[in-house]
Design a protein that fits this description.
alpha/beta; TIM Barrel; 8-stranded parallel β-barrel; 15 helices; 43% helix; 12% strand; globular
Length: 412
């Protein structure tokens, strides 16, 4: 039986959401939390984008140090040779890539404006795969953008060409959320059975079915004899109506009726990280978690109706499929209403040492404290919000890496 693996794309698709974004330190913290959770792979950014290069290289350095292990850190780029060459020039140690190109006739005609044919799409993709492998890529996913509106025979040809040139996965992109659980199951099962290549599911929520489509697609891949890789984002944040939500997908896999008995995760997942990672992403993006969000919404374990309250007090399993403490919930949130000293872009050394002392960080001398304070100031300038405890601890522990994350080198 095939297995299900999670490829989280918060640091790629999530940050492409209109009007939203993350600092490089925030993206790094998300990679750390995903790694602690047990997620297989983080699509951690764009290796052809200059302002990403210091961040990407710094995170790969963290991987070499064992901080970001065993998670895979993968870059997203267009499936053209020029982009592959640029990626390895800017981020020489990158080893995991997803190469993307449009595959539907709508996109080929409407986006490429007659400049590419179906054959050109396949040729561009295979040349990019060959170049990536020649430059040292260890794993390559090939993305079929708008696959849910593409001709199935063409998708089969596209996926087979990717496999023949050494691609490790075929990413089926329901770019506009057009599929439903019934259509995506049949399509993915057909692709898996006829190509023999593991299938990635990249589902959007334009029609509200990103989570269910991801699960149905994974079932289709495994029933077709292949591993399934589900793309998620934290809190479902993504372009337009968003992507499949990380916690919702994990709960659906492990808790939904009869599913986990047959369809297994390939890596152990620590669900107790759910609350922490959802709260951090909400704070970093500046987007509140909906009160009814699966697992992590404030009302997910709230009961007011008399019948429900009575039933859950007698036995929580009467009205709860899983326990809040499984998700790392249960501790009270405190809000300071008296005197509060914060560490910000204009902090002085006395206030900063007080803040760090509150989280048990001691400095050897004033010079060391000033060095960390300067990095914290710059981190606040970039994020424009107070840093959370985990960010302060990260900077104090890895100041050289933090400096790289905070360094931007514009074109001259």
């Amino acid at each position: 039986m095939g297995k299900i693996f999670i490829i989280d794309v918060t640091n790629r698709d999530g940050v492409q959401t209109a009007k939203l974004g993350l600092s490089k330190l925030e993206k790094t913290m998300i990679n750390i939390f995903l790694n602690e959770m047990g997620v297989f792979h983080s699509e951690f950014g764009f290796p052809t984008t200059r302002h990403e290069s210091h961040y990407l290289n710094a995170n790969l350095e963290l991987a070499d140090m064992g901080v970001l292990q065993p998670i895979h850190l993968g870059g997203w780029l267009r499936a053209i040779v020029k982009d592959v060459e640029t990626a390895f020039k800017l981020v020489p140690r990158i080893r995991h890539l997803n190469l993307s190109i449009s595959t539907s006739d709508q996109m080929i005609h409407g986006k490429f404006q007659g400049k590419k044919s179906r054959d050109d799409v396949i040729n561009d993709m295979t040349e990019a795969v060959d170049a990536a492998r020649a430059l040292g890529a260890e794993s390559i996913g090939v993305n079929a953008e708008d696959a849910s509106r593409a001709d199935l025979d063409f998708l089969l040809k596209f996926a087979m060409a990717a496999k023949e040139h050494g691609a490790d996965r075929f990413r089926y992109c329901d770019t506009l959320g057009y599929d439903n659980p019934f259509t995506i199951y049949e399509t993915i099962k057909t692709l898996a059975e006829n190509t023999g290549i593991p299938i990635e599911l990249h589902c959007h929520g334009d029609l509200g079915m990103s989570n269910s489509n991801s699960i149905a697609g994974a079932k289709g891949a495994i029933d077709g004899g292949q591993d399934a890789y589900i793309n998620t984002t934290i809190n479902g944040i993504g372009e337009r109506a968003g992507n499949a939500d990380l916690v919702s997908v994990l709960l659906a896999i492990t808790k939904s009726k009869g599913f986990a008995e047959k369809y297994k995760l390939g890596d152990p997942i620590d669900l107790s990280m759910s609350w922490k990672i959802a709260k951090f992403a909400s704070y970093a993006f500046g987007v509140p978690i909906p009160i009814n969000q699966t697992g992590v919404g404030i009302n997910a374990f709230s009961h007011e109706s008399g019948i429900h309250a009575d039933g859950v007090l007698k036995d929580p399993e009467n009205y709860e499929l899983f326990s809040y403490d499984e998700l790392g919930r249960g501790e009270p949130d405190f809000v300071e209403t008296g005197r509060e000293i914060c560490a910000g872009e204009y902090s002085g050394i006395s206030g900063f040492r007080h803040v760090m002392g509150q989280i048990d960080v001691e400095f050897a001398n004033r010079d060391e404290a000033n060095e960390i304070l300067e990095l914290v100031r710059y981190a606040n300038v970039e994020s424009q919000k107070p840093l959370v405890e985990d960010e302060l601890l990260f900077i104090a522990k890895y100041p050289k890496i933090a400096k790289k994350l905070l360094t931007l080198t514009p074109l001259e």
